[in-house]
Specification:
The protein has 17 helices and 11 strands. By secondary structure, it is an alpha/beta fold. The chain has 3 domains: 60 residues, no CATH class; 167 residues, P-loop containing nucleotide triphosphate hydrolases (Rossmann fold, 3-Layer(aba) Sandwich), CATH 3.40.50; 164 residues, Helicase, Ruva Protein, domain 3 (Orthogonal Bundle), CATH 1.10.8.60. Helix 1 links the parallel strand 1 and strand 2.
Length: 407
């Protein structure tokens, strides 16, 4: 900068995480390279940097530790977040169930010009179609049966901030048309209302579905797709970023231990190897749930391969500690009581329900009806527990207006 503000800078670092990427772009670098790097990649980047029309600096804002990874795919995600930090244009995030789409959406918002505004999330697959319009845009008193008072919609709640539309692929066609108009015109009416309201919210959408296939099938509007897909962030499944599994697992074990007031546990090298060979159909969320389970159930301060669930990791016999979970729970209870903490039963019950529900949802690929059957619950009961425990799931079920009850 002392020599010339116009000189493009390419940063090279051996510590390639989100914070480094964000910090580099915030300081005005043209791009950054994590080590080790390919010489052809360096030459290509230098060539682009010295091309006059391509020398615009791309800023970024400091990031947190919720997004972790050293894999090339995650480095590209970090780089994209960095480039978007001074923009509030629409973003479409795609990836399998449990890959972290809402985490990315929150990080995008927190590192944007709208960071001081609210972040409002809504799972469009989790609300019956006849209620979704009112949920998004609000309604006036008397707009329909049961509308006893005016209600503010999510667009209004997100004014000055961001609205995250999760599972956008499940939105009914009729509502897609209205959403398209809002994105195009920037205004809308409440259901049953006459006052024109301004839509002052950045829209970030996400889906685990292939929207191109839905467009071809006639179930998703192509013009809406292009409105949402101004910038696309594709999240890789965990099985395609095996180098990140140990990093994530160690962080989760530390976080969960702190959250539950338990002893920190360490992964044995052979346990890491077992984790890296598993295919993780539930992706990062499944790994987090496993770490929750291991923090509570695994005896000792080290996690051995035998501590991993036999039904997932194919042990010949169940681990000896499978019958010791009441003892582990008792140890936790004694520690909590000794520390003077209250409401042990309520907290333990909620955590147990959360772990078992999320395990069942991971096992069924997010399909609530099947998960409810595994848990021995009715679907409506599972839905109420999901709401009570604030468990956000990407729904693998059919649209909920086709299923009796549920959310």
């Amino acid at each position: 900068e002392r020599l010339s503000i116009d000189i493009p800078v390419i940063a090279m670092t051996a510590f390639a995480d989100l914070d480094q990427a964000v910090s580099a772009f915030q300081k005005g670098v043209f791009d950054y390279l994590p080590k080790p790097f390919d010489l052809d990649q360096v030459m290509s980047m230098v060539e682009r940097a010295i091309t006059p029309e391509d020398t615009g600096n791309v800023p970024e804002d400091p990031g947190g530790d919720r997004l972790l990874g050293e894999s090339p795919a995650m480095q590209e995600v970090f780089r994209t977040i960095g480039r978007l930090s001074r923009s509030d244009i629409s973003v479409l995030i795609t990836g399998e169930t449990g890959s972290g789409k809402e985490v990315v959406a929150r990080v995008l918002h927190e590192h944007s010009p709208r960071a001081s505004g609210p972040f409002v999330a809504i799972n469009t697959a989790a609300i019956p179609s006849e209620l979704l319009e009112s949920e998004l845009f609000g309604h006036e008193k008397g707009a329909f049966t049961g509308a006893h008072s005016r209600r503010v919609g999510r667009f209004e709640e997100a004014a000055g901030g961001a609205l995250f539309l999760d599972e956008i692929g499940d939105m009914p066609l009729a509502l897609q048309t209205r959403l398209l108009r809002v994105l195009a015109e920037g205004d809308y009416y409440r259901v049953g209302g006459r006052d024109l309201l301004r839509a002052d919210a950045r829209v970030i959408a996400a889906t685990h579905q292939n929207l191109q296939e839905k467009i071809e099938a006639g179930t998703f509007r192509e013009d809406l797709y292009h409105r949402l897909n101004v910038i696309h962030i594709g999240l890789p499944p965990l099985r395609e970023r095996t180098e990140d599994i140990a990093i994530l697992a160690r962080r989760f074990l530390v976080d969960v231990a702190g959250e539950l007031g338990l002893e920190k546990k360490r992964l044995r090298p052979e346990t890491v190897q077992a984790l890296e060979t598993y295919n993780w159909p539930g992706n990062v969320r499944q790994l987090l749930n496993l770490c929750r389970q291991l923090c509570v159930m695994a005896p000792g301060d080290q996690i051995f391969p035998e501590d991993l669930p036999a039904e997932l990791f194919g042990h010949g016999t169940a681990r000896q500690g499978d019958s010791d979970w009441p003892e582990a729970l008792g140890q936790w209870g004694r520690r909590e009581l000794a520390a003077g903490r209250n409401d042990l039963l309520g907290r333990a019950q909620e955590e147990l329900e959360r772990v078992l529900i999320e395990c069942a949802l991971d096992q069924t690929g997010g399909q609530r009806l099947k998960a409810a059957e595994l848990l021995g619950l009715g679907r409506n009961t599972l839905t109420r527990k999901l709401q009570k425990l604030d468990v956000e799931r990407e729904n693998g079920d059919p649209p909920l207006d086709q299923v009796a009850g549920g959310t």
